[in-house]
Every structure is written in C-alpha cells, then in structure tokens.
Write a structure and sequence with these properties.
Carboxypeptidase-like protein, mainly beta, carboxypeptidase, Immunoglobulin-like, CarboxyPept-like_regulatory, seven-stranded mixed β-sheet, hydrolase, 6 helices, single chain, signal
C-alpha cells in the first residue's frame, strides 16, 4: 500500500476543555448513575469517560459510578452498547455533590455485531487495510497498533463514489503497544476521499494505560511517549499558548497561497523566509481568553527531530530533513488552552508531517513530558 497522502487532513478528536486551575491538580469526585430512560433501571457496566484523557470508569452492576478528576471543564461521554450515548459538558465549579443521573434511551438500531466471516469479502478486508493506514497512520507507532474488536466497524465504499466512510457500532478498542495505552475510541465519523487524498475523522478517545508493564518496559514506553509528543500538534499549541515556540524547537514562517493563473484549480506557495514570533499569532479578548488569530497559512518547522523513515518512504533515497507542517485557521479566531487543546475541534486544518501522524501517535491531553533538571 502506498504511503497515505499527507497533503491535507482534518482531524477532530472531540471538543475537549481541560483547564487545570493549578499545578497541584486538586481532585474532585464526579459521581452518579446511568439508567434506562424507559424503565428507570440502572444500566450495568456503562462506560463513563472524559474525552482525550486517561480519566474513565465503568459503572457497577447497578449503573453507579464514581470518578476522581482534576478541577477543570470537561466533555464527558456516557456510552453503553444498545443505547444512544450522551455527551455532557461538565465543570467542577458546578459539580453536584449529590451526583448525577444520566438517562440513556435504547437504540432502535439492530446490534449487528455477530462475526459472520462469509459476509466479509476481500473488498471488506482491503477497505479495512485502507482504514488502518489512514486512521491509525503509517508511522512506527501506527503500524504497531491493533484493533481488538474490528468487527464493530462498518466500512462503506459503495454509497458515495471514490469515498471510504467508516463508522462503528460500538466503542472501537485499539491496542498501542509502543505508547503503552489501550484506546477506547468512540468513532463518530471517518471519511477518506481517494481522489484528492482528503482525510477527515472525528471521535472521542479514552486512553487506558497498560498497568502490566515491567519497570524496564515502562521506561521504554515513557521515552516513546515523549518522542511522540515532541513536534506534535499538542506540543505546538502548548508552546504557542506559552509564547515559547522557538525555545521548544519550532520555527514559524508565513506562507501565502496565490492562485495559479494558468490553472484556477491550483495554487502557488510563496514562503516568507523570515521567521516570526508566536506572539503574532495570539491575542487576548475582552474576557482575557487567549485567542489564536491569523490569516493565510503558517509554515512550521520542528528542528529538534528529523522526519521519520516511514514518512519519507524507505525506498526514497536522500538525507532525512526536519519535520515540516502547515496550519490554517478555519475561523477568524480560536480559543486555545494551556494543555494544547482548543475550543472548536473543527478550528485548525493541518497539512504535512503533523497531519501524517494519526491516532497511533496520539497522547492524552493530561500527558506531561518529564522535565529534566540540570
């Protein structure tokens, strides 16, 4: 299979507002019951998790749950097979001490999850391989990832010509051995347009750390996590928020795309070779919120790590270069947060190296690299 086109990709991980109020991360208790809307009975073992983090729990046999979380604003997912899920915005400032009661309505959709191999023809498996490449990615981490319940996937390349669309009937479970996580991924939508290489996916991941790792293996996993973090979109947005992109290894330049007079469907890139400060990208609004605001495109070079062999392609000769990406803001301004997330998941369009790194390179938003003390 050819390397996935990294020219254009839009990645949506779910709206996630994790605004820690202090470095001590004061813990709060989020508790409640998940119940059947029609009967009022508790739903045993329903899943409750904070999207894009390691904070999650299963309800008990009576549908009751309790989860300790740092102070902040969150998006909570409540999910159970056979029921319509819920997305709930939660602020620990308004946390109800008596707990919450979430009512899920039974799904009218048939649960067609029985594995019937005769119905999965060669085309299904080809589509599965395409989905793996464009969703998990073809990086070293992405290649090592494995679907633990791929039979929940619904792969559709027939309803729209030249487009592969994927949904999941249940939470998709992904093992990522390199980074030491199991991802429970609530896939909302996946779309790959073969003609122009456009990839779009949206969903809500929970990161479950592998607690069975030996000390030696855990040390290796920590190194791989930091490697995945360095140069990522999460790292970049955090450094823009802090105004220290240069110290973190990012070089920012302005990129202009001029219509090609000889071909109205194409454009010509014009790169300003003079780097500029991240402070030019941000401003505070009247409420004191930090907003990302820029026109045209931002050309990003990460100088602390070379592009990977997998990105270049093993058959491509030549010296590996720096990791180069492009950002485009899809709106006039976008609120960003200290942990590297932003208010509107549709707000940033990424191209290049950052776009090439997919779910296989994801880290939870509560991940923090170790700080070395000289």
């Amino acid at each position: 299979m050819n390397r996935p086109n990294s020219i254009l990709v839009k990645i949506v991980l779910g709206l996630f507002l994790f605004l820690a109020k202090n470095e001590a991360f004061a813990q709060q208790v989020f508790q409640g019951t998940v119940a059947n809307y029609e009967t009022g009975d508790g739903i045993p073992y329903a899943t409750v998790f904070i999207t894009n983090t390691t904070f999650g729990v299963s309800a008990d046999e009576n549908g009751k749950f309790s989860l300790s979380i740092p102070e902040g604003n969150y998006e909570v997912i409540i999910r159970m097979l056979g029921y319509n899920g819920l997305v709930f915005s939660l602020s620990t400032d308004d946390l109800k001490p008596q707990g919450y009661r979430f009512l899920l309505s039974p799904s009218e959709e048939e649960l067609d999850l029985v594995e019937v191999k005769v119905n999965r023809d060669p085309a299904w498996y080809r589509n599965l391989e395409s989905f793996k490449a464009y969703f998990l990615g073809t990086s070293e981490n992405g290649i090592k990832c494995k679907f633990l319940n791929e039979t929940v996937l619904r792969l559709d390349d027939q309803s729209e010509s030249g487009v592969l669309k994927v949904t999941a009937a249940d939470i998709l479970r992904i093992e990522n051995p390199n980074l030491g996580y199991r991802l429970d991924y609530l896939l909302e939508e996946f779309r790959y347009q073969r003609r122009d290489g456009y990839v779009f996916y949206a969903g809500y991941p929970l990161f479950v750390p592998d607690s069975s790792l030996s000390r030696r293996r855990q040390g290796k996993v920590e190194k791989e996590r930091e490697k995945a973090y360095r140069g990522s979109l999460q790292h970049l947005v955090r450094s823009i928020y802090e105004g220290n992109t240069e110290e973190e290894g990012f070089v920012l330049r302005k990129l202009y795309r001029i219509p090609d007079p000889s071909n109205p469907d194409k454009f010509v890139n014009q790169l300003d070779m003079n780097p500029f400060s991240a402070l030019e990208l941000i401003k505070k609004n009247s409420e004191g919120k930090l907003m990302l605001s820029f026109s045209d495109y931002v050309h990003v070079t990460y100088t602390e790590e070379l592009e990977s062999v997998e990105f270049r392609g093993r058959a491509s000769p030549g010296k590996l270069g720096n990791q180069v990406s492009t950002l485009h803001l899809e709106m006039e301004e976008l609120e960003i947060y200290a942990n590297g997330s932003y208010a509107d998941p549709f707000g940033i369009l990424v191209e290049g190296y950052i776009a090439w790194e997919r779910v296989g390179d994801l880290l939870p938003m509560d991940y923090m690299p170790e700080v070395s003390i000289d």
